[in-house]
């Protein structure tokens, strides 16, 4: 896979060189913080298998610390995901509350209109009754 000139050939014929490679940092528990060279096209098209460690292996204590850091990061991701879910739920509740308020306002307006019509018809009924009594007296 490698040659002495610093050129590396991937399985798909893609040629990697030190100039085209990207310096990356490992976030795995076993090699946390350890730097390596990888193909700059590793996420594009066919995968190039080029990989070369730059740093020496980390010590056991470093790996132990990395494990705790990874746990902390996982916990923070979980907490962030939970916060997003709560935010989505709160937004949904707010939307539903707004819809319910609009329905209540519409019903209140209809009830007010019914009451106005009832009062108007009551006034008309009273007027008719008064006229009927007046005509009876005549």
Automatic annotation (TrEMBL):
Residues 16-57 form the GRF-type domain. It comes from the Eukaryota. Keywords: Metal-binding, Zinc, Zinc-finger. InterPro entries: Znf_GRF. It holds the Pfam family Zn_ribbon_GRF. GO terms for molecular function: zinc ion binding. This is GRF-type domain-containing protein. The lineage of its organism: Eukaryota, Viridiplantae, Streptophyta, Embryophyta, Tracheophyta.
